[in-house]
Amino acid sequence: MMAVDQSVHGVAPSLSAKVVGSFAYLTIKDRLPTILTRAIDTIHRNKNKFFEEYGEEGIQAEKQTIHLLSKMRNELQTDKPVLALTDDLQDTESWNQYLRRHQGPQGDEESVSWFKSPWLYVECYMYRRIHEALWLNPPISDYDVFNEAKTQSFFESQQAVMGLCTYLEGINKSTDELSKNQLLDNFNKLLLVSLWGNKCDLSISAGQKNSQKTSPLESLSSLQPFILVDDSNMVWSTLISAQRPGQSGKIRAGRVDIVLDNAGFELVTDLVLADFLVSFGLAREIHFHGKSIPWFVSDVTANDFQWTIRQTMAANHKWMSKSGAQWQSYLKEGVWSYHDHPFWTQPHEFCDMAADAPDLYATLQGADLVLFKGDLNYRKLTGDREWDYTVGFDTALRGFGPAPLCSLRTLKANIQVGLQPGQGEKLTSQDPDWMTSGTYGVIQFYSPKSEQ
Ligand code: F6P
Ligand code: MG
């Protein structure tokens, strides 16, 4: 992406498919229709299941849903205007208000279309329309078209999951002997495992399988050169400074929120990191934030979250089932909690959260650290805009900062800020796809406290 000049206070333009040949253009032209076609095929393949479960009504619903998805695919491929939602759900009005804002004071419907509007908006909109197509067709309203892909990604990552749970058991056994350095070393390892777990995402692959085959612990050192920003030391010191002397002389750790990304192997890496933080007194509680509807193919829903813990518990692998049982009891005790605010499945840039979802912003202000997993969250943190590579992460956040935060992201979209002068240009000369292949990663930290 060429560096664009910005006035000091200027806000860079949004990435969009208006730029023919750009990654946004190729995503909307090729990848999104592929994802839609896979969704249609999945529904068609389950036709008999719908008939067995719901009889003729199920067949009607299957047919009508496919009709709605095919209609949307045609709108997308012929750059038709974005349409208002008609499903009268909790967030329908917020989506339609957002559309009207984009149409401007004249309400010019033609001006908001798949290739002319911001990429972030239309890509999020597509997943919300998939939800509408199902919702409008009971009895298959709550069918998750991406469920098969997510569960398959979990099953195909079993070797890596076993390796990770075995590693966790190894360090959990030695809770009292670990020196500070060993604690820090294990923290860094599990933070990296959670970062690289983000490579396993089915949206970038347009649904192609990309589960984790080998244990990620063995590849951490070979992946180190691909980390472009490494603020892991800031994450560690934020956790340590959140520890306070509690009652009876015990240390009381802080609260860590994890804004989740993908189900499957990536979710397991996040659960293992969360287990480690609690077991070693680096967090007293963990709030997980997932999606309230199926999203970007592999993103975690409440159903995926519970299913993954149940599956881990039921595994016939000693340390997997022990980990799963531990995670289940953390949830029962309230040490871990799962939340799915509708804001995470709306198109907003995070700098709008305080205005558009003040309740969620206030919730995040209660955390001592918020970890944002993955590429879409990074795009929303930085507004999915054509920033220069060297623009500061704080500048790109444009005032978003409910708490100290860190993005753990592998690069799958052509947006990256906070690099050193020349670093982006050097990467482009070495590897033209560095921004979108998922090969590179960042551990990028920001604290609002540093602004005071
Ligand atoms: O372009 C790839 C893409 O579809 C992006 O739109 C999105 O940011 C990414 O996949 C999803 O990746 P992640 O699961 O890491 O958010
Ligand atoms: Mg995702």
Automatic annotation (TrEMBL):
Key words, A-Z: Hydrolase, Manganese, Metal-binding, Methyltransferase, Nickel, S-adenosyl-L-methionine, Transferase
Top-level division of the source organism's lineage: Eukaryota
InterPro entries with a match to the protein in the record: ARMT-1-like_metal-bd_sf, ARMT1, ARMT1-like_metal-bd
Keyword Acetylation among UniProt keywords: no
Pfam families in the cross-refs: ARMT1-like_dom
Damage-control phosphatase ARMT1-like metal-binding domain segment(s): 27-427
Cofactor: Mn(2+); Ni(2+)
One cellular component (GO) term of this entry: nucleus
Example GO BP: DNA damage response
GO MF term list: metal ion binding; phosphatase activity; protein carboxyl O-methyltransferase activity
Hydrolase as UniProt keyword: yes
Catalytic activity: beta-D-fructose 1-phosphate + H2O = D-fructose + phosphate; beta-D-fructose 6-phosphate = dihydroxyacetone + D-glyceraldehyde 3-phosphate; L-glutamyl-[protein] + S-adenosyl-L-methionine = [protein]-L-glutamate 5-O-methyl ester + S-adenosyl-L-homocysteine
EC number: 2.1.1.-, 3.1.3.-
Record's comment describing the protein's domains: Subfamily III proteins have a conserved RTxK motif about 40-50 residues from the C-terminus; the threonine may be replaced by serine or cysteine.
Function per UniProt: Metal-dependent phosphatase that shows phosphatase activity against several substrates, including fructose-1-phosphate and fructose-6-phosphate. Its preference for fructose-1-phosphate, a strong glycating agent that causes DNA damage rather than a canonical yeast metabolite, suggests a damage-control function in hexose phosphate metabolism. Has also been shown to have O-methyltransferase activity that methylates glutamate residues of target proteins to form gamma-glutamyl methyl ester residues. Possibly methylates PCNA, suggesting it is involved in the DNA damage response.
Family stated for the protein in its record: Belongs to the damage-control phosphatase family. Sugar phosphate phosphatase III subfamily.
Family matches, as PANTHER family: DAMAGE-CONTROL PHOSPHATASE ARMT1 (PTHR12260)
Protein name: Sugar phosphate phosphatase
Species for this entry: Scophthalmus maximus (Turbot)
Gene name linked to the record: ARMT1
